[in-house]
Write a structure and sequence with these properties.
The chain has helices spanning 11-24, 63-73, 89-97, 107-114, 116-125, 141-151, 174-192, 249-265, 297-304, 308-316, 396-409, 419-427, 429-433, 440-444; strands at 4-7, 27-33, 47-52, 77-79, 101-102, 155-163, 166-171, 197-201, 207-215, 221-233, 236-242, 270-278, 284-290, 333-340, 342-343, 349-350, 353-354, 357-359, 366-369, 377-378, 385-393, 411-413. The chain has 447 residues and is an alpha+beta fold. It is globular.
C-alpha cells in the first residue's frame, strides 16, 4: 500500500479521497488554488500545498505544478479525482515517468478508450452494440453529407474528444449538418484542443444508462450494475438512480456484461464507466467510456456496499479484487440528486454567492457528500455543485419517499439551489407516469 497520496483535485471529490486514504491508513496531500485557500477539507488532509491562482489553467490543470507538489511532499501516487486531469493520458504518462503511480487505468487503455472514435471501433470488435454512424472521423463536409444521407437524418455530430455535452450538435437536414460540423469542431477545439468529429445516428428521446466496472491488474473485471442518468438539463446530469427503470433484469445483465467485456478487451484496469443510450424498445448502444471515477459513483456504492474510491487505491497499489461477479450484490434502490448553486425557477441559471446557513438532511438511508459549509462562498471559477444527496432503500417507492423527505429538509440560505426544481421533478405526475429520457427535464420543466 502507498504511504502518501497527492490528490490532484478540489472540492467534494478531494474530500472523498481524503476520507478513503484515512480509512486505509494512507497519508493524503491536498493541492489547492488561492481561491480554495480557506476550504475546510484542507485541514483533514495530512498536508496541503498551494499550486497557483484561481483560474484552472494556472492551478488544477497545470501539470508541472501538480508534479512539483508531489515531488515536494514525497508522494507515492497521485489520485486525479474526476474532471480536470483525470482523463488526460499525457498527465498519467508524466506521473508514471516521474515515479508516481497514477491512480487510474494505463496510458494505453486511456488512449484506446478516451478517443470516442477508437472506442467505437473497439466496441464493434468485441460485438458491443454501437449506434450506426461514420466508420471514422469526418474529414470534409462532403463526406459528412454522404454519411448522413446513408444512415438517414436526424444525426448527431460529435467531437471525438468531447465531454460534458460539449462538441455535440444535432442535424435534421443537409443545411443544419453543414452548420453542425463547423460548430461542433470549433467548440471541441476550443475546449479540448481537438476539433475532430464523427457522425452517428441520432436516437430520438434516448435514455442514458451507464455501467460501473472495476478491474484489477490480474485480469479480473467485474461490473457493479448500472445507473440511469437520464434526468439532465443541457446535457448535465441532475439525478442518477439504480436500478434503471423499465429494463428487465435480463437486459440489465446484458448491458453490464457488455461493459465488462469491453473493459476486458481494452486491457482496462481500475474503476471506469461505460456509457450507453437506450432506445424506446429497450435496445442499448455503446457511446463512450469514462476512464475515471464518476461524480455519481456513490449511487453504486450505496447499492452494492462496495467502496469504489478505496478499491481505486487498492488496485493501483497492486492488490487483487477480493470478490468475483457472483459476489456483487444489488441491495435495493439508490438515488442521487445533485445540489447545485442554481436558480431552478430560471432554467437552472447559475447562482453563485455566499452560503449564509445550511441545514443538511439525515435519517435512515440518507447520505450527503459535500465540501461546503455555512460561510462558504460559491465562486465563479469552478462548477456550481455544492453537494450530492443520496438515499438507498429496499424499493423504488421507499427510496423516492425518502429522497423527497430529505430534499424538503434541506435548507440553504444566501443562494438559490436546485432543490426546488428537484422536488418539482420528483413530485410531478410526469415523473410518476413516464420513463424519463434525456429530454424529459427540458420538455416539462424548462422554458
Amino acid at each position: 500500500m502507498f504511504k502518501r497520496i497527492l490528490i490532484a483535485n478540489r472540492g467534494e471529490i478531494a474530500l472523498r479521497v481524503i476520507r478513503a486514504c484515512r480509512e486505509l491508513g494512507v497519508e493524503s496531500v491536498a493541492v489547492y488554488s488561492e481561491a480554495d485557500r480557506d476550504a475546510r477539507y484542507l485541514k483533514l488532509a495530512d498536508r496541503a500545498v498551494c499550486i497557483g491562482p484561481a483560474p484552472t489553467n494556472q492551478s488544477y490543470l497545470k501539470i508541472d505544478r501538480v508534479i512539483s507538489a508531489a515531488e515536494l511532499v514525497g508522494a507515492n501516487a497521485i489520485h486525479p479525482g474526476y474532471g480536470f486531469l483525470s482523463e488526460n493520458a499525457h498527465f498519467a504518462e508524466i506521473c508514471r515517468s516521474c515515479g508516481f503511480e497514477f491512480i487510474g487505468p494505463s496510458v494505453e487503455a486511456m488512449e484506446r478508450l478516451g478517443d470516442k472514435n477508437s472506442a467505437r471501433a473497439l466496441a464493434k470488435a468485441c460485438d458491443v452494440p454501437t449506434v450506426p454512424g461514420s466508420d471514422g472521423l469526418i474529414e470534409s463536409e462532403a463526406q459528412g453529407l454522404a454519411v448522413a444521407r446513408q444512415i438517414g437524418y436526424p444525426v448527431l455530430v460529435k467531437a471525438t474528444a468531447g465531454g460534458g455535452g460539449r462538441g455535440i450538435r444535432p442535424a435534421y437536414d443537409d443545411d443544419q449538418l453543414k452548420i453542425a460540423l463547423q460548430e461542433a469542431a470549433q467548440e471541441a477545439a476550443a475546449n479540448f484542443g481537438n476539433g475532430a468529429v464523427y457522425i452517428e445516428k441520432l436516437i430520438e428521446n434516448p435514455r442514458h444508462v451507464e455501467a460501473q466496472i472495476l478491474a484489477d491488474n490480474f485480469g479480473n473485471v467485474v461490473h457493479l450494475w448500472e445507473r440511469d442518468c437520464s434526468i439532465q438539463r443541457r446535457r448535465q446530469k441532475l439525478v442518477e438512480l439504480t436500478p434503471a427503470p423499465a429494463l428487465s433484469l435480463e437486459r440489465r445483465r446484458e448491458l453490464c456484461e457488455a461493459a465488462a467485456c469491453l473493459a476486458k478487451t481494452a486491457g482496462y484496469t481500475n474503476a471506469g464507466t461505460v456509457e450507453f443510450i437506450v432506445d424506446k424498445n429497450g435496445d442499448f448502444y455503446f457511446i463512450e467510456m469514462n476512464a475515471r471515477i464518476q461524480v455519481e459513483h456513490p449511487v453504486t456504492e450505496m447499492a452494492t456496499g462496495i467502496d469504489l474510491v478505496q478499491w481505486q487505491i487498492r488496485v493501483a497499489a497492486g492488490e487483487k479484487l477480493t470478490f468475483e461477479q457472483k459476489d456483487v450484490p444489488h441491495l435495493g434502490f439508490a438515488m442521487e440528486c445533485r445540489i447545485n448553486a442554481e436558480d431552478s425557477e430560471r432554467n437552472f441559471r447559475p447562482c453563485p454567492g455566499k452560503i449564509e446557513n445550511m441545514i443538511v438532511p439525515g435519517g435512515f438511508g440518507v447520505r450527503f457528500d459535500s465540501h461546503v459549509y455555512p460561510g462558504y462562498t460559491v465562486g465563479p471559477h469552478y462548477d456550481s455543485m455544492i453537494g450530492k444527496l443520496l438515499v438507498c432503500r429496499q424499493t423504488r417507492e421507499e427510496g423516492l419517499a425518502t429522497m423527497i423527505r430529505a430534499l424538503e429538509e434541506f435548507q440553504v440560505d444566501g443562494i438559490k439551489t436546485s432543490v426546488p426544481g428537484l422536488l418539482k421533478i420528483l413530485k410531478s405526475p410526469q415523473f410518476a407516469n413516464e420513463t424519463p429520457d434525456v429530454g424529459f427535464v427540458e420538455r416539462h420543466f424548462m422554458n
